[in-house]
Design brief:
The complex is a heterotrimer of chains A (199), B (90) and C (239). Chain A is built from 2 helices and 11 strands; from the N terminus they run βββαββαββββββ. Chain A is mainly β. In chain A, a hairpin with a 2-residue loop joins β8 and β9. In chain C, a hairpin with a 5-residue loop joins β3 and β4. Classes of the chains: A mainly beta (199), B mainly beta (90), C alpha/beta (239).
């Protein structure tokens, strides 16, 4: 039985219950979580690729920035239990990108500078659920937060919002990515508290 | 430029002792990717991810991934070719 | 090889020393504590009334055999350190686990010692200084932001002498008449104070990742074998 430390509360604060998933607490900063060194790919070397469609598709940075984009305000939830409300992003919707590629896949595996991967069923990245985001809070996305561009899938735990994304491969199978293959839930819905295998 | 979120193997000393029951920071590991041997204390450690990631100093390959759940722990040591622990049968 | 079962131990604060505006030493009740070696650390676990727990590692400041003490720097966005530095008082309890670490440890074998510390990186080095036999030659290079950030300032001054040479750098602001260094450590500074490699000193470097990398690079540039430099990297710290 652990001893209670008088007066210790931790960093948590209360938030509107309907917006904070179970087991989460509110933060007002933006914690940085990393599995490795921050990559620094120069924009003139950056490209985004969709593989596994009828034909491969790639965009340079300038081409990617020329795609239709949108601004969104959303809440984000990290599996390490912090939630941040009303974050503002700008990016290209996955609906836009997938509309440019002929395919019949059911899943994608995102790949990133530094080697990180994460998997998503296409039904969880379509109909306005996912973006490739390059601005945060009105400014270009900083490298420590995944810049130049990251995946943004706010309705799932934030490990799915892969930093430093360089593209994704369309697949017929849901292939577990970096964390999904080492204990984390294959989908990661925070409202069902799907943190780990078997949750 | 040093990434301030990078620590070293000293930072996982407690976790290793808890999981393996032996002092591990003085153990020597061999990287499966580049073959370099190094003392665990000197490895690159990232601890603020959803899990702990340990990387080879020389080639940056992932050596270990450790996820601590409330009632389970997942370990992937496949990035190591082997670990040499000090201490044997005598 | 030591096989050691790592168990959480309940401890209580028996005293506190305000070292600097951001740094405090806590003296702990060591009932059941197995002892430690200079340079090791322990884990602290706090539990809130609703069961929420947070855990962090802190270097042990005391010498083996002395009253158990940790020195903690309050980090701005910290979760455990603000509690330990600002809130915890005599009689308060929490759990500790340890001692931990077999690499960043020093036992006096008579060889000269070079200690390089940045900010709260000086804490495990202080355990080493406090445990020295007194006949071993030790040189310390200690980096802080300002004079008021120098942890253990009076004790270091009192211990300094023929066997313990203390070199300091204040990187942000220096008081009038300051005769120490005034910049971040670099190879040139290390060249001026480090033992010649031929003396085969023990070398320990501790502080933030940036500090440790810079110090280790500087020593390697002087001809030190990389493997002879024992390093311990903390998260953010002032120095």
């Amino acid at each position: 039985m652990p001893v209670f430390s008088r007066g210790f509360q931790g960093r948590r604060s209360e938030g509107p219950e309907d917006r904070i998933p179970p087991g989460q607490h509110l933060v007002d900063d933006f914690p940085v979580l990393s599995a490795g060194p921050t990559p620094h790919t120069p924009l003139d070397e950056w490209s985004f690729a969709i593989e596994g469609g009828a034909e491969p598709a790639t965009w340079t940075w300038d081409e990617f920035r020329a795609l239709p984009s949108e601004e969104l305000t959303t809440d984000i939830h990290c599996v390490t239990k912090w939630s941040k409300l009303d974050t503002v992003w700008r990016g290209v919707s996955l609906d836009t990108l997938l509309g440019l590629v002929e395919h019949d896949a059911g899943y994608l595996l995102a790949f990133c500078d530094g080697g990180y991967t994460t998997n998503l069923p296409l039904e969880h990245v379509t109909d306005g659920k996912a973006w490739i985001a390059y601005d945060y809070d009105g400014e270009p996305l900083e490298p420590e937060h995944g810049g130049p561009a990251r995946m943004l899938v706010p309705h799932l735990y934030f490990w799915k919002s892969a930093k430093w994304i360089r593209g994704f491969r369309l697949q017929d199978e849901d292939e577990p990515g970096f964390w999904e293959s080492n204990g984390y839930h294959i989908l990661g819905d925070p409202w069902l508290e799907q943190r780990y295998w078997g949750d | 430029m040093a990434d301030e979120r990078r620590l070293d193997g000293n930072a996982i000393g407690g976790m290793m002792l808890e999981l393996f029951g032996v002092e591990m920071t003085t153990a020597t590991e061999v990287c499966r990717t580049c073959g370099t041997a190094d003392v665990v204390a000197r490895l690159e450690v990232y601890m603020d991810a959803p899990g702990t990631v340990v990387r080879c100093v020389h080639c940056k390959a992932v050596l270990m991934r450790i996820v601590r759940g409330p009632d389970r722990t997942w370990l992937d040591l496949s990035g190591l070719r082997c670990i040499e622990l000090p201490g044997g049968t005598e | 090889m030591r096989l050691s079962r790592l168990l959480w131990l309940v401890t209580r604060v028996t005293g506190a020393v305000e070292e600097t505006p951001r740094v405090r030493t806590l003296l702990l009740d060591a009932n059941g504590w197995p002892g430690h070696r200079a340079g090791q650390h322990l884990d602290v676990r706090l539990t809130a009334e609703d069961g929420y727990q947070a855990e962090r590692s802190y270097s042990i400041a005391s010498a083996p055999g002395d009253e158990l003490a940790i020195t903690v720097e309050r980090l701005e966005d910290g979760e455990v350190s603000p509690y330990l530095v600002d809130e915890a008082r005599e009689g308060d309890g929490f759990e500790i686990r340890g001692p931990i670490g077999g690499y960043f440890v020093w036992e006096d074998d008579g060889r000269p010692v070079l200690l390089v510390g940045g900010g709260s990186g000086v804490v495990p080095l202080m355990s080493m200084i406090r445990s020295s036999s007194g006949s071993t030659s030790i040189r310390v290079l200690y980096s802080s932001r300002t004079l008021e950030d120098v942890i253990y300032r009076e004790e270091l001054a009192a211990r300094a002498g023929e066997r313990l040479e203390v070199f300091q750098t204040l990187t942000r602001e220096q008081p009038p008449g300051w005769t120490g260094y005034t910049r971040r450590i670099d190879a040139e500074m290390l060249r001026e104070i480090a033992w010649p490699v031929a003396e085969q000193p023990h070398v320990f470097v501790c502080g933030s990742t940036r500090f440790v990398d810079a110090a280790a690079d500087g020593l390697v540039a002087l001809g030190y074998e990389p493997l002879s430099i024992r390093t311990e990297r903390f998260g953010a710290t002032g120095g």
